[in-house]
Amino acid sequence: MQRKRIGERLIEAGLITQEQLQIALQEQKKTGELIGAILYGHGFISQKDLFTVLSMSYSGEYTKEKEEEMDLPRDITDIVRQSRAVLRTTVRDAEKISDISMAPVVRLVEQIIITGMKKRATDIHIGPDVKGTRIRYRIDGLLQHAMYLPKDMLPAIVSRVKILGAMNIAESRIPQDGSTEFVWETKVFDIRISTFPLTGGENIVMRILDKSQLLLGLENLGFLGDDIETLKKSLNVPYGMIIVTGPTGSGKTTTLYSALSTINSVFKNIFTIEDPVEYQLPLIRQSQINIKAGLTFAAGLRSILRQDPDVILVGEMRDMETAELAIRSALTGHLVFTTLHTNNAASSLPRLIDMGVEPFLLASTIDTIISQRLVRILCNECKEAYSPTSEMRESIGVTVPEDAVFFMAKGCKECNDTGYRGRTIIYEIMKMNESLRKLILTKSGSDTLAAAAKKGGMEPMYETGIRKVILGVTSLEEVISTTRTAY
Predict the structure, then answer these.
(1) How far is CA 163 from the centre of its chain?
(2) Residues 6+ apart with CB under 8 A from 449
(3) Under a CB-based contact definition with an 8 Å cutoff, are residues 217 and 235 in contact?
(4) Is 357 exposed, middle or buried (0-12, 13-18, 19+ CB in 10 A)?
(5) Spatial separation of the C-alpha atoms in residues 318 and 362, rounded to whole Å
(6) Which end of the chain is more exposed for a tag (fewer CB within 10 A), N or C?
(7) Which residues lie across from 205 on neighbouring strands?
(8) pTM for the full predicted model
């Protein structure tokens, strides 16, 4: 029997009206939520009704995957039936909840985390909504709706997550940070937890760090062959500065870790000062800033210089003091890696000058600037090939072979109907030369610097992206949407 839509089944069963379904469908157009979750969130149906109809909708054809999907509605039902009192408990009283009464909540939170891991999520978002508790996963850089739970579940969920992160469950007025390790299928995951007070409850974001998925190495990140050779030459200079730029979440830390792993050996003393330390690397001395204790980037860097380092990684140059210390460290015989938040490689130089760093120091120390973004990789199971028209090739602005084949995203069950699975980088590499040094000394703007860098051989990020489109790695639409603010 062909599977009917949930809304149709609910109407046939007399559980909702056509008007209620239309209200839910209108909201679905705005939010993208599952129709059953919306109907439940509005109070049009009960959890028992939703569970029954979901079971019927599979028409008896249960696969292992579908059974796993149904585990979470079962846990929710158990929680409501077994521990309604727990779910209505305020955060202040949550300390008094026994392990027995919290057991359903423990199972629910565990299932939320495991589901995120199965979906390859980097972040789990749990927070209050108008009529309930919304849970979303960030997958390949985009937030996706997961489920909608009753509003009164949030306090118990928050309490459980705080217990996992060794946080104060009695404090709900201020933001808190915590962390925990989570073992699933023999893998050990690090989870960074952040809470933030909102109207209607606390918002939780859990960042999932999978150590087994940290593929260090410039090749694994997506750097192309000729650029890898360029970067390896930069990494082997005895002193100077290498800067990686890009927005938050663009993979800067992973690029820096890969650079360090390339030169890491027992013959080099490598130190880092980070916020936070995301992954532990062998041989490397890693430290994390602690502002309350007085360990800032600047203070940590001063102390590291007394530890006889060869290579130093400064997580971010946030202020003039840190920037000047890092640059002077590069000037005095150290190889320094660091990051900045700028749109492209060329704009890093004016930014540092605006922070108060002397131009002659920049011209003397900076060796390489890498600017990067993350783009989604096309799903190999469903991507569709097409030949770009001559008009399209001309509008791209980059020379594209006449016989080039592009690919577009389609969507299938393997990629959750997104058309993409995984991410890679697009980038530009600015190598310092005499022309650029002269322009730095005259405090030239980023446009002038970018033009000189391109003349000196730099391939702009957009053009690197087009190379990956031609290779069939990503789509033209993905590259355009990712680089639109860069140039």
Answers:
(1) 24
(2) 346, 349, 350, 436, 439, 440
(3) no
(4) buried
(5) 16
(6) N
(7) 125, 194
(8) 0.79
